[in-house]
Fold this sequence. Notes:
The complex is a heterodimer of chains A (382) and B (398).
Chain A: E1 7-16, H1 19-32, E2 37-41, H2 48-51, H3 59-85, H4 98-125, H5 139-144, E3 149-154, H6 162-171, E4 176-183, H7 184-188, H8 196-218, H9 271-277, H10 286-304, H11 327-331, H12 334-343, H13 357-374, H14 378-381
Antiparallel strand pairs in A: 1-3, 1-4, 2-3
Helix pairs in contact in A: 3-4, 9-12, 10-13, 12-13
Chain B: H1 19-42, H2 44-75, H3 84-90, H4 93-106, H5 117-121, H6 124-129, H7 135-166, H8 170-197, H9 210-235, H10 245-276, H11 279-287, H12 293-312, H13 321-347, H14 356-377, H15 390-394
Helix pairs in contact in B: 1-2, 1-14, 2-3, 2-4, 2-8, 2-9, 2-13, 2-14, 4-7, 7-8, 8-9, 9-10, 9-13, 10-12, 12-13
Amino acid sequence: xxxxxxxxxxxxGALFDSPNKLVAFAKKLVNEGYRFWDVHSSYPLHGLPxxxxxxxxxxxxxxxxxxxxxxxxxxxLTYWTMSVDYxxxxxxKPWFSFPAFVPVLFELTxxxxxxxxxxxxxxxxxxxxxxRHPLHDSEYLKKVSVDKCGIxxxxxxxxxxxxxxxxxxxxxxxxxVVDIYYNEEEIAYKPRVFEPKFIVFLxxxxxxxxxxxxxxxxxxxxxxxxDFMLKQFKVNPQSESMFFADGFGMRTPxxxxxARGQRDYPFKGKPDEAGEKLVNPLLSTNDVLExxxxxxxxxxxxxxxxxxxxxxxxxxxxxxxxxxxxxKVRNWSDGRIYHxxxxxxxxxxxxxxxxxxxxxWAIILYIRALQRSLNAKQEDVK
Amino acid sequence: MTxxxxxxxxxxxxxxxxxxxFNFGLLFTLVGLIGIVLGYALEPERTSFNLIIVFTWLTSxxxxxxxxxxxxxxxxxxxxxxxxxxxxINSAFVLVAPIIAIPVIFNIHSIYHWSHPEALIHDxxxxxxxxxxxxxxxxxxxxxxFLLWFLFYFLIIRNSxxxxxxxxxxxxxxxxxxxxxxMPIFAVTLTLFSIDWLMSLEPHWYxxxxxVYYFSGTILASIALFTFISIALNESGFLVEGxxxxxYYSMGALLxxxxxxxxxxxxxxFMLIWYANLPEETFWFINRGVGSWLYWSIGIIFVKFxxxxxxxxxxxxxxxxxxxxxxxxxxxxxxxxxxxxIVMPTYSKxxxxxxxxxxxxxxxxxxxxxxxxxxxxxxxxxxxxxxxKLKRGIEFHL
Lengths: 382, 398
């Protein structure tokens, strides 16, 4: 206990057993013209704000605005993700299907309204992190947050008189009357947001949650009985199998299998024949050149350069390929270039698995356009 | 328990209700009855469909009121004690409602498709359901359900009325126990009732949430009528002194809460069927989008949810007697609108129909509501003057 000299009287408080007596006393205080007093109760007493002549709380409007913000955020989120940015066909429904979005809107409305209102209340109305108040940690507050309700009359009220107030409390049936003191120093203390204690607390919480998350996701879930989803009767990629004689789980396709959308290439190892017999099926239209440019930039340009000049972006990690603008390549037929894409040449590997047939031909048309840009003929100028 | 001192009871003197409203109700009932009898003679099928609406609407109010009283006893509610007798009078509608069902049962073949033996021959689904959906079992369920409801009605009402003179605290405890037994029985019987009378209109369709859907309308309609009569009687001074806006607030809050509850349940039913997109479930909603039914279906979102929701959202609206009376009448109308939406598309598949038959059904229900309220309140105290919680209930404030 501190000594009493240091302490100033903040208020006189009274505890009541029933809200009825409290309301009667509150009416009395209003009639007498007291201005600095307050009521504390462990549950809401709806009629009191009117009796105390308080202004209507703006918190309801805060909740309304935040709730509507939640609704609109939810609408934008679902609309943008499901109807614009990442369209997925689900059950044949239209991309903008409002009934499916309603649960999201509802949840976001409730979330923003409740959490937002609580945050506004704590940090704007209650002025957290400031937790210094004369009532803080007092016996009075401990009791009103359990089973009593109470009124305090503050000592700086113009009408405040210690003896009158105490006798008034007795008259109105207060079960207990207490004096509430405060310490000047304690009240004047300005809390900082980044108290060392608080930082340590945050660090401890961070360590605990990540440790728990790590243990749970990487250890606990692999223990029985939580691992039932892992143990399934199926072959995982790259895994061993007792079923086949060679012990491999993964099988090679049956001889002669052709993947969907792929065609057998009949000119394996015969570049000249390919050059003679293969004909580009595409016309050099805008769409085709766009496709060719996109695919060329993705798969060819790292080595051949953006314009096919052989200026590799790989900074000498591989030998630079020769220019695509050479006399030799310009005179090659489309089929001969197609053969290089299919089979590779020198250090260049096959790109057959990365590109579809149409994309290969589109790239060739784009290379032709590149060649023409550096070696234009006379009639191109006209 | 210690004995009660005399100041637990309040002064109340019985006053006869004015005759004016009763005559007006009687006129409505007679006009409506003539319309229904005529309709039954000319178009028995259509009239029977309308009688199902009237029947389920009145049953809603009656059984919902018993449920409401039971919840009050079980939770030990204080604020509603001064008004409990009004809910008790409203719950008497369960006694009247089955009379309306009798002409429907006599006309069962033109309403319920599953009651045709020849329909079962080629219909595998109906054949499999026939163990439950057959005429004999239907009538047995009807009788058993209502006998159970009568039983609980009489038990609860008798205890409560006896308490007026005996002032015996044990009556409250007895009613609490009866209410506890009533709750599970209520859940099962109300679900079966809604399946029998409403869902089996389309015997191929099923929705597992349908019982809850009907319950949400039931509790809304019963609280709405309770609110309206309580406020009207209190304003003209037929109840005790000291009942004010703080009591009304709870009624407004309940109306608001159950409006939301209805929307939640109705949307749950719709969304699951819409999402799963199974033909045996979706046709029920597709039927309600044919022709002018589409506008009726869209209207239900506004009539039963958006209008009362926005109307009751501000706190002052939940306390203002004028606005509350309007909201409760609106919700009673909305429940009728909802039942019309459930029942009538089976009769008229192409669009909404409205003629003198529908009108006389509505006039009849309104008249019956007024006449029965008068009849069952005659000679009874409108306040449970023997209830030990009455004084606390009157002094209740938020």
